[in-house]
Design a protein that fits this description.
- This protein has two domains: 164 residues, 3-Layer(aba) Sandwich (Rossmann fold), CATH 3.40.50; 161 residues, Rossmann fold (3-Layer(aba) Sandwich).
- Helices cover 42% and strands 17% of the residues.
- The chain contains 13 helices and 13 strands.
- Helix 1 crosses helix 13, helix 6 crosses helix 11 and helix 9 packs across helix 12.
- The longest helix has 18 residues.
- 42% of the residues are buried.
Length: 339
């Protein structure tokens, strides 16, 4: 299978992380790949570490003629069986050629940006319904959920993050953006005495969130960790994964929690609500309902038996549905059907 991939995103987010994971999984499965991406040193090194050699392009939008011409040239030489685009910029620059062109969607995007593509692959059934409602043919939409390649790592020493050994630790991961609701995580922490909150992520709201933590009187119990590449070590040291996102189409953090054997409390946004079974694989609370999310988090801290049940069921859910092996087979079956 000769696969050409393109991603135009520049930041750190779920789509970019999943792209790196999937490209690596394809490589280990024996796919021959041509990977093109917008310049990003961290992402480039992650791909190189997996045996891939990405080509960096500008992906500057409509006026960026060079990227389009270069993709056409690369496709002509590489002769891919499949072209897979990530997000709108890469899809809009899909190269010419007699091969199926697929765009992978992990959010609620307008289909007008994907007109150069033949098929859309959505990571939730709700997103499939969303693009059908916009008029995209239902027979050219496919559902393949995300996956996670997890490798356990030793827990980070709490002393490195100025956190007492005996204190309950909540871990929240994601961009510091309104959708991720880190402000809610801070409010929950304020109601849980002696509990510490680790926030792993970067974004424009960092200053506002630090100001909020100060106003709540909990700055001494909150650690703003920035963008991290050691999430496995963070999960190994945390007691509860607090996942308060207001808008979350899928939610890779759910898979992180399951794979790491960390009980999860999530706001019932689209993704977590679709995949977490309340009381079995995690706990779900109303979006922005600080009192309810606090109560559920306190319950997990205090009820070790419940936490153990969620840990066991979550790990089983991950292993049966969301491993790299399962995902690659799903994609491979799709590619074989299209070619």
């Amino acid at each position: 299978m000769r696969l050409m991939q393109a991603i135009g995103g520049a930041g750190h987010g779920g789509a970019e992380t999943f792209f790196v994971n999937l490209a690596g999984a394809f490589h280990r499965a024996g796919f021959e790949q041509l990977v093109t991406m917008r310049a990003n040193e961290t992402r480039k090194q992650q791909l190189i570490d997996q045996g891939l050699h990405p080509t960096e392009l500008k992906f500057g939008g409509k006026l960026d003629i060079f990227t389009q011409l270069k993709l056409n040239s690369l496709a002509k030489d590489f002769k891919p069986d499949i072209f897979l685009a990530w997000m709108s910029r890469a899809a809009a620059a899909a190269p010419k050629g007699n091969f199926p062109k697929i765009a992978r969607l992990g959010g609620y995007y307008k289909v007008k940006y994907f007109r150069k593509c033949d098929f859309l692959v959505c990571n939730t059934e709700e997103i499939c319904d969303f693009v059908i409602q916009q008029g995209w043919p239902s027979d050219k939409i496919l559902y393949i959920p995300n996956f996670l390649t997890w490798q356990d790592r030793p827990a980070i020493k709490r002393s490195e993050l100025q956190t007492p050994e005996e204190a309950p630790v909540l871990l929240s991961l994601g961009r510091l953006h309104y959708n991720k609701a880190m402000d809610t995580a801070l409010k929950v922490t304020a109601k849980l005495e002696d509990t510490f909150l680790w926030i792993a992520g970067a974004g424009d709201l960092e200053k506002d969130l630090k100001s909020q933590a100060t106003d709540l009187g909990i700055m001494d119990r909150v650690r703003f960790l920035g963008w991290r590449t050691d999430k496995e070590a963070l999960f190994a040291a945390a007691d509860v994964c607090l996942y308060p996102s207001r808008i979350e189409p899928f939610g890779n953090v759910t898979l992180d929690a399951w794979a790491s054997k960390t009980p999860v409390v999530a706001a019932a946004s689209a993704g977590p609500a679709a995949y977490i079974r309340h009381g079995e694989t995690g706990l779900l609370g109303e979006i922005d309902n600080v009192e309810e999310l606090t109560s559920l988090t306190r319950q997990l801290i205090e009820d070790k038996k419940l936490a153990a049940t969620l840990i066991e069921n979550g790990r089983q859910e991950y292993e049966s549905k969301f491993t790299g092996q399962v995902a690659v087979q799903n994609w491979k079956t799709l590619f074989e059907q299209l070619t």
